[in-house]
Amino acid sequence: xxxxxxxxxxxxxxxxxxxxxxxxxxxxxxxxxxxxxxxxxxxxxxxxxxxxxxxxxxxxxxxxxxxxxxxxxxxxxxxxxxxxxxxxxxxxxxxxxxxxxxxxxxxxxxxxxxxxxxxxxxxxxxxxxxxxxxxxxxxxxxxxxxxxxxxxxxxxxxxxxxxxxxxxxxxxxxxxxxxxxxxxxxxxxxxxxxxxxxxxxxxxxxxxxxxxxxxxxxxxxxxxxxxxxxxxxxxxxxxxxxxxxxxxxxxxxxxxxxxxxxxxxxxxxxxxxxxxxxxxxxxxxxxxxxxxxxxxxxxxxxxxxxxxxxxxxxxxxxxxxxxxx
Length: 325
Prior knowledge:
Layout: E1 6-9, H1 10-29, H2 37-47, H3 50-60, H4 65-90, H5 104-123, H6 129-146, H7 159-174, H8 184-202, H9 222-245, H10 261-274, H11 283-302, E2 309-315, E3 318-320
Parallel strand pairs: 1-2
Antiparallel strand pairs: 2-3
Helix pairs in contact: 1-2, 1-3, 1-10, 1-11, 3-7, 3-9, 4-5, 5-7, 6-7, 6-9, 8-9, 10-11
């Protein structure tokens, strides 16, 4: 029987794994950010780019309308199941309107995929694809910048985050499928250096809660618009930087990054339990280890129920198929 194997680039898998690690780490140290400058600094830095980068990566393989529709359907189904389970256990009621904590990503992803399907459908027969792409990015960035001025758009249906992070997803769709290796390191270095410089210059001006992008600006008003522009600039630069610089080699841990969704969904309850020990003086340093262990164990538990992937690496601008992982 012929087995269909989905292809995943090693560089993307490595990047997804790194981002997953940072997400879990930031969720673990969240209770400590008010009492530890170190925890706050780490948490603030991670939140400056981890959701932009995850949104971007989510769009990388959505290169046609069919894959977007399929992604929207599967994400919505996973959201309904996960949110019913988590809200019934932790809130004592079933709530599909307000996503439970990290599950908001699934609802946002279903929304992004629908927009991506429309873009891919139009770009498949329009001659002016560049004009369409540029126009859509201008519109979505503008809406993302100004949506915070509307008081009714907040955590409900994860609408605020869905709108704010949509441009990153679209940039992922619009990225060329096969990037040339020549000049990749230079481009990545330039993007990352610019993003980091901008972040460290402006970090004290951007409150950590603002980078959740989950609620309206409120009293910030026009200042909120300026802060969101700065967040977009930092998010785009760092995201493109780490994307270009992500190792394109099949490492021993690369296969874990091929399918990270189940680990992402299920890390929530474990993090909730571990946070009960956050007052321990060793909690923050141990969080670095616990994040890695959590990813490894959850991956091992669900490795047999996951999808079958081949991880491939780039050689001289060409794609070389990898072994099934």
